[in-house]
Each structure stands twice: as C-alpha cells, then as structure tokens.
Amino acid sequence: MARGRIRSKLRLSNLYTFGCLRPSTHEGEDPPHQIQGPGFTRTVFCNQPHMHKKKPLRYRSNYVSTTRYNLITFFPKSLYEQFHRAANLYFLVAAILSVFPLSPFNKWSMIAPLVFVVGLSMMKEALEDWRRFIQDVKINARKTCVHKTDGGFRQRKWKKVRVGDVVKVEKDEFFPADLLLLSSSYEDGICYVETMNLDGETNLKVKRSLEASLALDDDVSLGNFAATIRCEDPNPNLYTFVGNLEYERQTFPLSPNHILLRDSKLRNTAYVYGVVVFTGHDTKVMQNSTKSPSKRSRIERTMDYIIYTLLVLLILISCISSSGFAWETEFHMPKMWYLRPDAPEDLTNPSNPIYAGVVHLITALLLYGYLIPISLYVSIEIVKVWQASFINQDLRMYDDESGVPAQARTSNLNEELGQVHTILSDKTGTLTCNQMDFLKCSIAGTSYGVRSSEVEVAAAKQMAVDLEEHGEMVTSTRVYGSTWDSSGTREIEVESGGDNNNNNPRVPIKGFGFEDNRLMNGNWLRESQPNDILQFFRILAICHTAIPELNEESGKYTYEAESPDEASFLAAAREFGFEFCKRTQSSVFIREREYKVLNLLEFTSKRKRMSVIVRDEEGQILLLCKGADRHVGEAGLRTLALAYRRLDEEEYTAWNTEFLKAKTSIGSDRDELLEKGSDMIEKELILVGATAVEDKLQKGVPQCIDKLAQAGLKLWVLTGDKMETAINIGFACSLLRQGMRQICITSMNPDGGSQDSKRAVKENILNQLTKAVQMVKLDTDPHAAFALIIDGKTLTYALEDDMKYQFLALAVDCASVICCRVSPKQKALVTRLVKEGTGRTTLAIGDGANDVGMIQEADIGVGISGVEGMQAVMASDFSIAQFRFLERLLVVHGHWCYKRIAQMICYFFYKNIAFGLTLFYFEAFTGFSGQSVYNDYYLMLFNVVLTSLPVIALGVFEQDFPALYQQGTKNLFFDWSRILGWMCNGVYSSLVIFFLNIGIIYSQAFRAGGQTADMDAVGTTMFTCIIWAVNVQIALTMSHFTWIQHVLIWGSIGLWYLFLALFGMMRPSLSGNIYMILDEILAPAPIYWMATLLVTVAAVLPYVAHIAFQRFLNPLDHHIIQEIKYYKRDVEDARLWTREGSKAREKTKIGFTARVDAKIRHLRSKLNKKQSNLSHFSAQDAMSPRSL
C-alpha cells in the first residue's frame, strides 16, 4: 500500500452537513441549462477524441508554452528589443554611416563592437528563454492514464491528452486538463481537491459527480461509455461553469462542483475518472495566466536619462565642432595653400561654409560617439548573469527538505533587490506551513503546559544580559516574569519546559508540542478534577470531521483533517491516550469505545464553532462543542473553548425533527434555517476548558521578518483568510504584539443596494480613516506602535479613487498592515497603490496562482517554489523555496547587486567622458579638422577589451557589509549628486589628460635624437595615460579585493603594452602608423614614462582627496565598519563591533526584536515596581517601634 497507509472506504459526504442528506429532488430532474448563443459553442464527444481531429470541433492541444520566443520569432523580436535602447539605436545609425567616406574611422571599428554587444545580449535572452522552455518541457512530459479503445488504460504524456479523452487520476496527482468528474473511489462519487495553485487555499474542496455517471467506476464500465457535453467556451472565470451532459437520452445540468481544474491536486481520494473538456491554453488556469509585464529597474530607467543627457552633450559639442569647421572653412581655409583653395573640394570650399558645416556635423557625431559607452549594456548584461548565477548557486538559499534552490528567473532586476522599501506578502503557504502544534491547555481552571514561547525566552535572556552589564547577579534562568531571592539578587524566570532531569528528550511529534507530566502517561488520573479532564480529552477525540490513516511503518494513526488545528487536537488526544482510530458511516471509535454520530453541526464563520451530537455506549446523548473565543495571548497562541451538554431523548428527538426539515429544504434560506437549528441546541453548555495551539510558521519566518524590519523594510500581509486567523498569524510572526494598538477598519452592512446606503458606508469608512490618521499623528509615545487591519469588503471602498490615498497615508504611518479576506484582484490593486502612491520599490511574494496578479504588479515578484505547483513561480522574477531565504536574497545579494551595478554604471560614464572629450579637445586644437588623435584600433579596443574586464570585476566581485541595506533604499550610490560628481570627475580627468600631455610633449623633443613627437606618438601617449588613469580609478573605487580583481585591473594595463608590442611587430600594411611604435619610439623616451606617471597621479588626485576628507570628516557607515575590520577591532573589542553594527540597523516597531524589547520594558517595569515596594516596606520596617 502506498506509503504504508490504510484507508477505509466510506461515503465521506455523509460526514458533512451539506452532504449528509441531499435535497429530495434528483439531479436529473433539475432543468438543464439553455446552451445557445455566443460564448456557448463548445461541444465535447466523451470517450471519442477522434471526433475532434477536424474543424470546427478541433480544439487546442494540451501543449503549454510560456516562452517569449520560438525559432521563427526569436531574431525579429529580439532585435527589436535590442534596438529599443537609445544607445544601441545610436550605434546602429553610426555603424551604417561609418560605411560612407564621411566617417573619421574605419567602418569595422564601429560595426564590430556593435555586433559583439548586441550578439551577447541576444544570447542572454536566448538562454533565459531556453530555461523557460525546459520548464515547459517538464510539465508537458508529465504522464497520466488515458482510456484506450479496447477498454484499458495506458500512460500518456500531458501534451498528448486530447479533448474527449477519459483519464484516470490517482491520489496526490495533478489534473492534466479541465475535467468533468465521472466517478471516484468513493461510492457516492465525491472527491477531495486541493486548489492551492488556483486560489491559494489549502483547505480541501469537495467535488461531486453526477448520479447518472456513478456506475462508471472501473476500467471495464468505461469501455462503451459515450456522451456529449455542450458547454461554455474557454474563459478565465475559475468559479463558474455552465454546461449540459447528454447521456443515455437524458440531459443533465453541469455546475462548477462537477469540474476538476488543471493544476489542482487530488487529495484523500484513491482515484477519479474524468473526461477532458478544456486542454492547454483553453484551461481556466492558463486563461488566467497573463504574460509577465516588462519590468525595468529604477537604475536602468535612470541610466536612460543619463544616456539622453550624454546624447544632448554629444549633439551640443558636435554642433560646436561643425560651427567651428564652418568658421575655419570661410575665414581660414583660403590661407591654407596646401588645401588648394584655388580648386577647392566641396568640403573645403570657402564659398559654401554652411554645406561644409552640415556635412562635418555627421563626422562629428561619429567622432564623439565614444561619449556613449557602447559596451555599457553588454557589460551590465554579463555582470547581471554572473550575479544571477551567484543567487542560483547560493547554498544558504538551498532548501534541503525539498531539494529546491533559489532561482533568478530574470537577471534584469538584480539591483532592484537592494532598494526594496515595502514587502507585500501572502500568508498561506508563504508565512505559514499550515501546521498547528498543541502547546497548552486549561481544564477546570487549571493551566497545563510549561513550554515558553521564543519571545519570552529571548526576553529573559536579554534581561539577564542587561542586569549583568549593570553589575547585578542573576541566580537562575527559569520561568516567566521575575522574582527576588532572599539575598536581594534578581532572578529572571523563564520556563524551560519539560523534565530537567530527563537526559533523553522526546522525539518531536507533528502537531504536538505539549510538555507537562501532570497530564502525560495517565498522570491526569491523580489530578483534582479527573472527570473534567476526561471530558476534555473526549471532546478533542470526537468533535471533528477527520479521517484516520494507519501508518504501517510506525504503527500510529495520522489524520486527514479539514484544518491543521483539528489535526493537532487529534494528535494531542492520541498522545494523551484517547486515540481516534476508526470512522464508519455512523460511528467513531476511540480505542475500543464506540460513539454513534447522530448529527454534525459544521463550523461557520458566523457561529465560529462546530458541534457533534453522539450517543455513547451507555446510551447517553452528548453534545460536544468547540469554538473560538477570539483571544490571542502574548505568545501568539490560537485558543479554542471546549464545552459539552447532556441531552435527554425527548429534547433531542424534537430538535432533530426540526433540524432534518431544515436540511432537506430547498431554497435560498436553507443556510439560515440550519444556523437557527444549530443555535437551538447549542445552549446551556458546560465549559470544560480551552486549548492553545501554536500556528506553525515556516522555519525561520519570525527571524527573517525581524532582520528585514531592522534593515528598514515594511511588511504588509495580504491574505484571503478571515480576520481572526490573520491576527493570529500576525502575533505568531511578530508583526503584532501585546501593547500594539490595533486599528481595525470595518464597514457596516448597507441597507439594500441603493446609492444612498453605499454613500453612507463610504462616509463611515472615510470617517474611520480620518480619525485613525489623527490618532497616529497626535500620539507622542516614542514606543507606540500601530497596526492597521482591514478586510476585503472595506478595502473595496478604500481602494476607490476618492479614498485610496487617505488609506495609504494611514497605512504608511502604521508599523504593520494586514489585509484580510482579499481577492486576487484586490491584492494586485493594493500592490499598485503602494507602488504608485509611495514611489518606492515594492516586492510581492506568494506561492499560489491567486498571488500571480500581485507578483506581476509589484516592481519585483518573488514566488515560493515549494511542493505545491509552479503558478506563482512561473510569473515571478525570483523564486525561493522558503520565506526565510528572502532575507539573504535582499540583504546580501540585493544590497551587493545594487552597489555593484550603481558603482559600475557611474564608473562607465566617468571613463567614457574622460576618453571621449579628449577627442573633442584635439579636434578643436587642430582647427576642427575632424581628425582623431587615436588609431582606429585603439578606439575599437578601448571599451570592448582594455577597460571592460576591470569594470566587470567591480560588478561581479565587489562586496561590503549586508547590514548597510538602507544605503540602497536611500539610493546613496546612484542619486543625481553622485552621478554628476562622477561626470565632473570624468571632465576633470579629460582636461588633465589632454592638456598635460600637450603641454609636456608639444614644445620639446620627444626622442634622444631631438625629434619631436608626431600625432601617433602623442595619441599613443595620451591613450596610455587614459588606460592608467581609468584603471587606477577603479582600483580606488573598490573596497573588496581578491586576486581576480588584481589580475584583471593590472592585467588590462599589461594587455595594452602587450598589444602595442605585438601589433607593432606586424608588417606595416597591417600595423600602419604604429609599426614598432613601442620598441622604437615610446619605450626609449623617458618623457613617455614621466608623462604617464604625472598625468595618472594628477587625474586621480581629486578623488583620493575626496575620499580621504570624507572618511576623516563625514564617514559613512561602511567606512567605519571597513576600518574596524581592517584593524581587527571586531575581534579585539566585541562590544564595539556590536555597537557600531547596531547603528546601521533601523529602529523598528515590528519583528521579534521589537517584541522582545517590549517584553523587556514590561519586565523591567515589574522589577522596578517590585524594587520600590521592597524599599518602601524596608523603610516602614526601619521606622516601626519594634526596630526603634
């Protein structure tokens, strides 16, 4: 048997109030839907897929593709994307113009770098799309059982499933397409479906087949099955389905309860048979999937403005150059006899200077094009791919349990991870793992359970540290609160839980974290109220709807329950000795004792309780009830009250008669009648006790939230759960804490649907928002913290245009925000409001298909790639296996990527301005002749080879301290003051490089023989100074060095000399004017080496002075930490290191640390109060007559 489990075959629908007794009418008697007109044209021939091979009945295949390109569209679409960028488009035009004689360069000096840059970018796009293709292949290659014409079943890949196929899906498998349920392993044709991938809900949905198809419950009976489905056309609505089934000359109406949607999972059911209705992109889940919007980081958008600025500068100096050339042509050209002014060419004709200036403008635009860094985009692409690979290969973000690593699904937003201001998170499956642990209980007024919460333990430890720092002795660390011992030393009490003498701690039990020997191992019989305890355990074991499963390997029962807290109650009952082991159609068995189930009153959000009426072996009728008491303790525990009532036979019989009438009624008031019937019997209950269960968060969630809060990030929780559940989770993960003021914005029920009633509701909500904003702003308590809690109904009004900014203003002022009962669309709208309203970077994280809209709307979308499908991941920009990995993704990788990319871009513009302006200076110096001072090969190699590797090293390997995350949020490294500072540095360097070189070389001998330098010697010397200056500059910029940086920086300088030597040795037809230039001209000349040294020092001197004064007078956080690390003060003085590190953290009012701080303040106030009382009593005792 699968996984060693045994399950009894039951009619499970009998266990639920909505399914215990069906209405007296048969489904076949219900009127069929009127299927006609537009939108209702689909016809499916069941078990006859061959009928759908030709149009008009030929429908889409079940093949699914999420790629952006295919073999035909890749080149045109990718080229369009590349030349959408302003810089690439400019260089494309420049490459075309370089073919004509007007170009000052060799055409290949423009074409080759462009082809290289665009080709690499296209290869990166192809690689990312290939990964999407591989993921599609895996999904399409999944297999399912498809019915054959001979009556058997065989395995077939999902992509080959066709409309009309009958498929068999087994337990824990995903449905390959949208199916009509025919039958299941249960006699009454129901099955249990998990729709987490569709709507994010983990509670199981009950689907039911038509009674007419119940007989189709084995492979043989399906052999001659034939029917026709006429239904709606493909549409994205998950919760509606309109259609008819024509079978055996009868027509049966179909509803959403009969449809099994693709990507939902079969649970608690051995198998189902279904017929395929929609396939591939026609399925509802694919109809809901939207193409990922094109997202660009803020840095990239700012970079566009810088490119536009440089283009304006390029056009400006080109206009100056062309105007200068026109001036020279008109006034000075006639005096230049060597240009033959008596027989002028068109470009040097003094009689037509305007024409000469216009033509020269084209030359100038090409000549000064090196102001625009052609290799910037490709260098950034390379760096981002490397950064993405670091994320993908980070073992600290690898989940050992699921074997799932982190994945950067796009590398375009790496730096955006370092600028996040607000995180919008789903709850179910993202923060929680849907597991409850039974932790404490109270029975007959006595509390049981000695385990403390993490908050209380941490608070006590911190208090102990604080007291030690003040020189006070701490004698023990025990249980809650604080006491004083006889010697006057303080004693911090923290419950450790369990038996301290037990050296062999028990193995953790899923759902059971209770520790108290008074109730374990039958010790409860020696308590003062054993009968109440017995009744308490019975309620735990009987009042539920779960199904037991025997694990043959362990010999223990596990439970499939409607909710995780119900499973934890059964685990607790089992450990207390009241093991629920069997359920039949009418009974439950607790060990050997049988209880007849007479009625089950299901939990509803209105009643907030559930009850079961049973008859025990003595014939006594008992009503057992459990319900929420709306209380959440400081430890964030969820509590339920347990009660019971004994019923006599006559009362029960009378009530049951009325209740059965309500259950069998048909009409819109059926639910209301059931509510009234339940309330009639659920009265005069005897309270037995209460349970306290811990909502099991995913591993590391509180710690992750705490670290993110300290980094200055805000967290909003958007959940479809009810408000009570969301509040519980808020306490559990420290978004809420005791003492935090909760602002609950709710809407009153409108009287009817009139405009006046809706206006009254809006005014009421607006009034609540206004009062809340005033309360927050007028509060003067520095420790005050506010939490905003709002439900989906109220949010509908709050998100309207005339109110949404008041809502946002309140939310921004609150420490935490929880939105409950929100729809997927509302999640996306809230995300858009935060993104557009605050103007800050937003990140959305979720794990289900209901989170896709939110993930796509946010600046950054993160999907949780757990074991429950891939819808959120497919729509995301980054995927991780657990929420706790978000801390490292943002605080480490995000911060590093931001700083690396920001410094890299600033440096790129610096070096290109420093290089490009020297061309302008030389042209002006030579009478705007259009002549380049540099050889064409120098121009070709500058961006692509000689300066590209160090900048890539900066973008890939630069590191600093992750604790400085707020530097990215405040954009310290890429604001306009920083950008303009780097540009000014580039202008200064260009002036120094050009004029110092001209001043040194122009008017004196260059070689020992007295020869002066020609243009090639001047250009090569100037180019050498540029190579040295920009590489020394990047070395000064880096704060983290490895051997790789040293090799790439100094190796680039060495590569320049190597190129001069080797290329200069080639025959003159190839090397041209630089033949043997290093060996014979430059190397023997001392002035060449002196100029290189002098110019390089002068070029970087202002930057050295700037960083020296900044570190001395106004150091940034990373400067201080860097010096502490360099002088190893962090090892010698741990307190100094801790203090300086804490300065970089933001003060926060949420998270584990804030909760511990609040607990410390509470304990400290109790200690001070107790100390003052003791001092008062001591003073009174000293003044008493007895002491006198």
Automatic annotation (TrEMBL):
Its EC number is 7.6.2.1. It is found in: Membrane. It catalyses: ATP + H2O + phospholipidSide 1 = ADP + phosphate + phospholipidSide 2. It is a multi-pass membrane protein. Residues 44-111 form the P-type ATPase N-terminal domain. Its main location: membrane. The keyword ATP-binding applies. InterPro entries: ATPase_P-typ_cyto_dom_N, ATPase_P-typ_P_site, ATPase_P-typ_TM_dom_sf, ATPase_P-typ_transduc_dom_A_sf, HAD-like_sf, HAD_sf, P-type_ATPase_IV, P-type_ATPase_N. Keywords: ATP-binding, Magnesium, Membrane, Metal-binding, Nucleotide-binding, Translocase, Transmembrane, Transmembrane helix. It comes from the Eukaryota. The keyword Transferase does not apply. It is an enzyme of class 7 (translocase). Residues 873-1115 form the P-type ATPase C-terminal domain. Belongs to the cation transport ATPase (P-type) (TC 3.A.3) family. Type IV subfamily. This is Phospholipid-transporting ATPase. It comes from Brassica napus (Rape).
